Amino acid sequence: MLVTNKKIAIIGGGPGGLTLARLLQQQGAEVTVYERDSTRDARQQGATLDLHEESGLRALSAAGLLNAFRAHYRPGADKIRLLDGQATIVYDQHQQPDALTFGDAHFRPEIDRGPLRDLLIDSLAPGTIVWNSQLQELTPTPNGWQLYFADGCTNHVHLVIGADGANSQVRPLVTSLRPFFTGYTVVEGNVYDAARHAPGLWKLTKSGKLFALGGEKSIIVSAKGDGSLSFYTCQRTTENWVQASGIDFQSPPQVAAWFARDFAAWSPLWRELFATNHAYYVPRPQYCMPLDQDWPAQPTLTLLGDAAHLMPPYAGEGVNMAMLDALELSHCLTNGQFPTLLAAISHYETAMRRRGSEVAAISIESMEEIHSPNGLAWMRQVME
Ligand SMILES: Cc1cc2nc3c(=O)[nH]c(=O)nc-3n(C[C@H](O)[C@H](O)[C@H](O)COP(=O)(O)OP(=O)(O)OC[C@H]3O[C@@H](n4cnc5c(N)ncnc54)[C@H](O)[C@@H]3O)c2cc1C
Description:
CATH architecture of the largest domain: 3-Layer(bba) Sandwich
CATH topology of the largest domain: FAD/NAD(P)-binding domain
CATH class of the largest domain: Alpha Beta
CATH superfamily of the largest domain: FAD/NAD(P)-binding domain
Largest sheet: 7 strands, mixed
Radius of gyration: 21 Å
Bound molecules: flavin-adenine dinucleotide
Number of domains: 2
Number of helices: 13
């Protein structure tokens, strides 16, 4: 096996990095995940997400974790209500029969991000994840890489996989290409104990999702298993809107004032998302890696997930792609079909880039359609 007696460092313990660690560990590889979060509970994990049969679920199945997934997924959480800005329901999947199940190509079961992360972490050998390890720099050595972390620790490894997400520290060592700004900014948020703090919207979700579109803006709301509502708004902005707006996103009243202004034409019901201190808000300008990116493969360094092909979330594929990357990379490194690490990584990267570009193109197109004057009609036709 190409990775026998090799120390492998995965930078980043998101869904992509953790899935890869599990898959490689199953093959007996010596793998460590370096994660910048101080502990596994350091950060509130984001929204609920749907895993797809051909990617996320396939990776979990190969990792022997499908039963763990079945124990934690949320039946019915995939049901969407499509609404206009006045909160009028124009299409309701709760009215549709439950026809699909595991094994159906179009079945997209939902799981909250926290439980997904937990089940991946719990599948790893103790000590695999080194928490509080923010990679700051990596320098090449004759047989690998020297890693330097923010806490002063340093380590030598033979193979590095950058799974460190949107603002990857590893990416610049692989490609000089940078993500481009798509013209849109998302404001992501979470309202805790939503039955109390956002009761109207909590009821409206019916434990599923709301897609609200109007006036070239959108809000996507998901009910989570812990009783919170996670959501993200989106609208067209300039690249520096977050700084230029002067809004302190740590201050709920300031965020509420922005929302009331920019979504003034929308029903007051949506303001529930901003009317409480039991919430957090994070602005996220939307970037995307170039769709035609290419780079020469290296024998001891590669990328997966958002580090490789960051894209806006409008194809619902980011986590699924990161997990499929992990599956395909683990195959290439362990299936005995490649004579060298360089050949294995080159094969993986060629397919990964092509797949990432195709999905990113769909995501950009969906984002444009959703925020077009006919966004609601477009979305309805996609869902019907
Ligand atoms: C608002 C929003 C909604 C989304 N909705 C969906 C959806 O419904 N479905 C879907 O499939 N995708 C969705 N996505 C996309 C999805 O979140 C990402 O594509 C996915 O998380 C990428 O996984 P990853 O493992 O590559 O990276 P990440 O999940 O970003 O994980 C990277 C990890 O690396 C760590 N890290 C970062 N830098 C360092 C460093 N220097 N040193 C050590 N560790 C580091 C981070 O702490 C993190 O744990 C959404 C994204 C957003 C912003």
